[in-house]
Amino acid sequence: MSYRQRRGGRGGRREGGGGGRRGGGRRGGGGGGGRREGGGGGRRGGGGRREGGGGRRGGRGGRREGGRGGRGGRGGRGGRGGRGRGGRGRGGGGRQFEQRNRRITNNDVVEGKFNKKICGKIGDPVQIETNYFPVAFGRKTIHQYHVTFLPEILNRRTRFIIVKKSLQFEKTIFDGEALVFSLQNFGDIEKDVQMGQKTVKVTIRYKAELEQNQASQCMNITMNQVIEQMNLQRIGRNYFDSSDSTDFPEYHLQMWNGFFHTVSHTKSGLSVNTDLIHKIVRTETVLDQMYQIIKQSRKKKTKNPFGDKAIQNRIQGKFQGKIILTKYNNRTYQISNIDFQMSPKSTFKVNQGEDVLETDFQTYYKNQPKCKEMGLKITDLHQPLIEIKRKIPGGILRNKQRKQKQIQKEKEKEKEKEKEKRKDYDVIYLIPEFCYLTGLTDEMRNDYSLMRVLSGGMFISPGKRFNSLEKFMRSILKNNKAKKKLQEWGMELSPLPTVVMGRILPQTKIHVNKSSFEAGVNANWTNSLRGVKLIEPKNFKTWGIVYAEGTDNQVDTFYDKLQWVSRPMGVTLSEPEYFPIPRNPRVKEYLTQLKRIKKRYDLLVCVLPDSDKRRYDAIKQHLCLNYPTPSQCVLLKTLNDERKLASVCTKIVHQMVCKTGGALWHVNLPKKEPILFIGVDVSRDLRSKRGAVAGFVASTDPQCTHFFSKVELLSHKTQEIVGKLGEFTKEAIKKFTTKTRKLPAHIIVFRDGVGDSQIEFVMREEVQSIQKYFKKIKIDYDPKFTFVIVQKRVKTRFNVNSENPRPGTVIDNVITKKGVWDWFMVPQSVNQGTATPTHFHCVFDNSQMKPDLLQSITFKLCHMYYNWPGTVRVPNVCQYAHCLSFFIGQSIHKEVHRSLQDKLYFL
Questions:
Q1: Which of 21, 27, 601, 864, CA to CA, is 20 to 30 A from 743?
Q2: Model confidence pLDDT, tens digit, residues 406-417
Q3: Which value, in Å, is the radius of gyration of the alpha carbons in the chain?
Q4: Could you tell me which residues belong to the region Disordered (predicted)?
Q5: Is 428 a member of any domain?
Q6: Cα–Cα distance measured from residue 202 to residue 114, given in angstroms and rounded to the nearest whole number
Q7: Does a structural domain hold residue 646?
Q8: Is residue 301 part of a domain?
Q9: Are residues 681 and 582 in the same domain?
Q10: Are 177 and 90 contained in the same domain?
Q11: Which residues pair with 338 in a beta bridge?
Q12: Which residues 6+ apart lie within 8 Å of 331 measured at CB?
């Protein structure tokens, strides 16, 4: 057993000591001191066998980092503990670090160190290693200042230069926009700084004195500066090791390995959350891929093929909105436009000392030192340029607006008009020949062989991941420049991750018709579901199959297999009506056949020759908007694989049942009162540049097996859905009441798609928007109300003895946020790579619900997603809301017919 797994042993081996094992005697004597980081106290155990036995000897001091000698454990009633002797190591001792960042366990929760409201108790305890590394901060306060520039300076690099010239003090940090942090209180400063021919007036005003728990932004900037000393290349917000990359020449791809980090204030104090990350970069330039489009178009060769309108449209469609990397400075940009009116021969103005010169792009890049060093040359003078629109930092604009409002409130409207006229972005142009696309396309993600090759580097086991993270943190502490930067700000970084006590929730029982079974240790009941009657099967008396001529045999085999797998489920399939269409059908042929169908069918199955998105979208749009009918699309190649056909048909029957209002299984929820569950998520709308779709799915029965759905099309993803949330909730309550003949006593909302910066808005606006609609149902209607934010994109990782945690593992202490009710949960089993937990944050609750109850309900709902006989990462209503918003945003782009709103037509 390794020292990570051992609960006791000698004194605390990490972070300066701490307790050891509970010992051999009934009342322990002294024991050995910590071996690392200046270990302190000795064992609780090792004393006399009876209550009177004293400790044999005191703890020995830490061997490293100059630990103080461990004090002997307290003796038994009749004995006396020994005293420890001092350590041999260097430094000032580990006790102080230990006191500031001691390990916190569930015992602290019971004793009231944390609010009892936000920590549960149910479940089997499990020791979990996390990717949070404790940070001790020696300073009590940090001073914050606000910076303004007159005239405004939009270039970030120029602002840094100006602030550096204005402040001669050491130990100051500028965030690049409007904030300065310092360990000194140097008061207000006004200074004129000369920049070429222009004088800039800099005003630095004292703003506030920050406590440790308010200094996360400052600490993050400091950690960035620390990691910059490690010879890593910054790309976006993360850091990558260019020497640690893997090439995939057959796919023209390269994978870069790097590190993510952020400093956060947790319940146990400041911690650095760090993780391994990867970036996929194409080895073909954007210009190379433009040439491929020209080649595929089979147009006649011309001197300038980029002048062809059809080629321009294809290039624009392929690259617009994509993320690119410029390798000469490793910066990422999002493509706003491909400007075919611009070329390397186009001219622009550039500042050179005090002069403003006009030059062309070819000459400009030719004279750049980095381009010379890398041997970059422009070879095609006809290539269009990539247009990038960069937003002016919001802090500058917002702070200026606030100042204007304070000075002249009466001119507020006038200033707002000026703001609308003024551009809030600047434009730069890049050379396609020097740019590379990043990330994977949908086509690449669907390439099984490619993903299998990439998975070897991307899916890292917990044991390997945590070994790499510890190695990285130790390398920081061994780097003299990085260590000096930490010392400047009084920061002490632990090279060892935080270990916490989590809980594994009890297994959930799955109920189907007259039988039930446990979900299992891996929370997957695929095998248990075979040959079992569903809780609410459906009879398909009128249904049809649309297929291409020449595939009659595959369709007959498909129907026979559907019949065979559906009988044990209690599903009745009558003979379908067949609708053949010509061989190799295009989109038009499918739509023509579908438009001929006038009779109402329970469901239509469409057999598709390939995965052409245009055909799929056209079929779904017709059957969701014009002829509202549940539908199921099946690829022909799926029907050709006889080995997997039974398994495929089982899943298809399940979807057919769900899409027509049936139900597969249910779980017993731990609360008897009728609860209405709501899931909300937002996805991008492919049809518009900035458009988005909000999906709303609510349960209509207490067992959460039937649902009501709505969508709201948003003009952009940041547009709020506050106005519609209350209205949709009101409709959902009416549907629930109609079905159950009872008003829901408790409403629980799971809101996905919310970033940390939006949480305050959601708490203030969306919660109130829903609450005010309760009175519109009934004047005295005041149900219990719980609102939970669900976050899937988190960088938290867990390690349990070099394996992933079991499904149902919960952590709600130590690494969770201070002062809020939140928890991490791993609902699903992960066999490849490291599991990503889901973060749940309860922002409102007036039901006095205990943490154990809400966590149990959340976990049980993760068993209720009908598209998979196993647990998913989020509650079912949340997953359905995601499927709905994604489906509408990808294929439909409109609100569907009302008759489909009480069915899971979008699965």
A1: 864
A2: 444 445 445 444
A3: 32
A4: 1-105, 398-418
A5: no
A6: 44
A7: yes
A8: no
A9: no
A10: no
A11: 386
A12: 235, 325
Query: Which of 100, 133, 163 is a domain's end point?
Result: 100
Instruction: Check residue 68 and give its pLDDT.
Output: 39
- Joined tokens for residue 866: 């009908």
- Does the predicted TM-score (pTM) go above 0.85? no
Cα 51 from Cα 357, distance rounded (Å): 89
Domain membership flag for residue 311 = no
Query: Mean pLDDT, to the nearest integer, of 625-632?
Result: 94
Positive or negative, the Cα torsion across 510, 513, 516, 521? negative
Whether residues 630 and 767 fall in one domain: no
CATH label of the domain that carries residue 557:
3.40.50.2300
Q: Are 345 and 304 in contact (CB under 8 A)?
A: no
Residues 572 and 633 in one domain: yes
Token pair in block for residue 745: 């006593």
Say whether the peptide bond before residue 568 is cis (omega within 30 degrees of 0): no
Tens-place pLDDT, residues 415-474: 444 444 445 567 889 999 999 998 888 788 878 888 888 887 788 999 999 999 999 999
DSSP string for 374-443: HT-----TT--EEEEEEEPPHHHHHHHHHHHHHH-GGGHHHHHHHHHHS-SEEEEEE-GGGEEEES--HH
Phi (first) and psi of residue 26, to 5 degrees: -70, -35
Residue 707: pLDDT over 90: yes
Domain boundary among 640, 659, 678: 659
The answer to whether residue 356 scores a pLDDT higher than 50 is yes
CB 815, CB 498: distance < 8 Å: yes
For 136-194, write each residue's pLDDT tens digit.
887 667 888 899 888 888 777 888 888 888 887 667 888 888 888 888 888 888 888 88
User: What is the spatial distance between Cα 174 and Cα 361, in angstroms, rounded to a whole number?
Assistant: 32
Model pLDDT, residue 656: 95
**Number of domains into which the chain is organized:** 4
Cα separation, 416 vs 185, whole angstroms: 36
**Does 741 share its domain with 838?**
yes
- Residues constituting the chain: 907
Amino acid, single-letter form, for residue 218: C
Q: Which domain holds residue 621?
A: 539-659
Q: Do 680 and 597 share a structural domain?
A: no
How far, in whole angstroms, is CA 130 from its chain's centroid? 17
CA atoms within 13 A on the CB side of 68: 13
**Sole residue written with tokens 């750049």:** 368
Grouping H, G, I as helix, E, B as strand and the rest as coil, residue 227 is helix
Residue 866 and residue 725 share a domain: yes
Is the Cβ–Cβ distance between 828 and 873 less than 8 Å? yes
Tokens, residue 523: 């929370």
CATH number of the domain at 758, please. 3.30.420.10
Q: Is the dihedral of CA 847, 850, 851, 853 positive or negative?
A: negative
CA distance 180 to 601: 67
Angle 124-131-277 (CA atoms, 0-180°, nearest 5)? 130
Is the CB of residue 695 less than 8 Å from the CB of residue 709?
Answer: yes
Burial of 204 (0-12, 13-18, 19+ CB in 10 A): buried
Cα–Cα distance, 314 to 297 (Å, whole number)? 9
